[in-house]
Amino acid sequence: MKTKYTREELRHLVLQQAQGPEIAGITGYLEIRLYEYLTAKIKERQDRLKYLVSDHNGLVSYWAHPDLDYRGLTPGCHNCLEGKITHIRHSTKCTQSCMFCYYFGQKMPPMAKNQYEVSNATKLFTLEELKIVFDKQGSSVDAIGWLYKEPLMEMDKMKPVMQYLAKLGHFQYLYTNGVFATPENLVKLHHWGLNEIRFNLSATQFSEKVIKNLAAAGRLFEWVVIEIPMYEQVYDDFIDNKDAILETGLTHMNLAELQLNVNTWNHYDGDPVILYRHRFGNLSPVTSREFVYDIIELAEKEMWPVVINDCSNDTKYYRDLVPDPPFPGVTTYEPKMGVPSETFYWIIDNILEDEVEIF
Ligand code: SF4
User: Fold this and answer.
1) Ligand 1 mutation pick, 89, 92, 98, 153, max ligand atoms within 8 A of CB
2) Residue 111 pLDDT > 70, yes or no?
3) Which of 215 and 281 is assigned the larger pLDDT?
4) How far apart are CA 131 and CA 166, in angstroms?
């Protein structure tokens, strides 16, 4: 087996879609080189930010205005990172069809009125069974997230569970596309015991109506978050609506590195969109995290009164390092596909030296 390769030889091997241990070693080497290159670029940008906080060996980073009383991640995020959460899914309906949706194009069977899913447990629970699960195992989690499709499409189903969990003292947070987060519905959720609400503004291309709903949430909840996946269109929409968003009274921005999978990876055109696989699984465009830092740099220049979470693949790697997954298991988003060959050509052409020693 050779140990040194020229660019041309590597291109040829990728083009041939060569098989076997040699190519596995080469693509593994190329992926690590790309990861190191991207990490170094982000680190350079991080080092220039005065109010960026980095924790856990740099895997978790967020920017916070220095005068805020609370300069940290939300309790929902904090518990998620420390493995002290579980999720409830109770609806398979949604009003939108987002091109970045992890479930894009998948037909979901409806869930019956008396069925709930906890995290990724394969078993469905009735309301009474769910209460027993939380009575017995609830002490192993602090926070409970309501997610999956659009939870507010079936609010009646949430009410008894949310009230029960609030009585047990659990912190609850919910993701919504904001369409049904009307002032009336927000008052109900607040009353039932919801603590933190996260709006995905990109699901409606930052609709004016949803930004108004965000402002209504800002008047009610202690923790009001926008959570958006970062790519060029979302960045542009965010900038166009920046002032209106900052006036809503939100407390946090979770800017997520866009995660792609077999349903969504080919929805993005561009120049071209090069994907990389994070060292431990997630597949993302190489540019996604750059947009996060474009926003954070602007926040520091204009001193926005918020906390901005760089919710990167590194952060999710840290999150997934839990010794014993909390009951009944954590939700993971494996891409279920490999890296396209364009990525390897891009690495060879843009990062590598003329000759590299691989083995
Ligand atoms: S709003 Fe959320 S669940 Fe609905 S399509 Fe968009 S990403 Fe998927």
Assistant:
1) 98
2) yes
3) 215
4) 12
3-state secondary structure of 311: strand
pLDDT tens readout for residues 213-252: 999 999 999 999 999 999 999 999 999 999 999 999 999 9
Q: Which helix (H) or strand (E) holds 187?
A: helix 183-192
User: For the chain, what are the domain ranges?
Assistant: 52-338
* pLDDT tier, 195 (very low <50, low <70, confident <90, very high otherwise): very high
Given ligand 1 and candidates 97, 177, 207, which is best to mutate, with the most ligand atoms within 8 Å of its CB? Answer: 177
Give me the residue label for tokens 């503004």. 201
Evaluate whether the domain defined by 52-338 bears CATH number 3.20.20.70. Answer: yes
Q: How far is the CA of 96 from the centre of ligand 1 (A)?
A: 6
Per residue in 284-306, pLDDT tens?
999 999 999 999 999 999 999 99
* CA nearest ligand 1 atom 2, residue: 149
230 CA from centroid of ligand 1 (Å): 15
Q: How confident is the model at residue 329 (pLDDT cuts 50, 70, 90)?
A: very low
Choosing from 102, 148, 150 the residue with most ligand 1 atoms within 8 A of its CB, the one to mutate for a pocket test is 150
What residues contact residue 308 under an 8 Å CB cut-off, 6+ apart? 62, 63, 64, 252, 253, 255, 295, 296, 299
Cα separation of 269 and 273, whole Å? 6
What CA–CA distance (Å, rounded) separates 321 from 60?
13
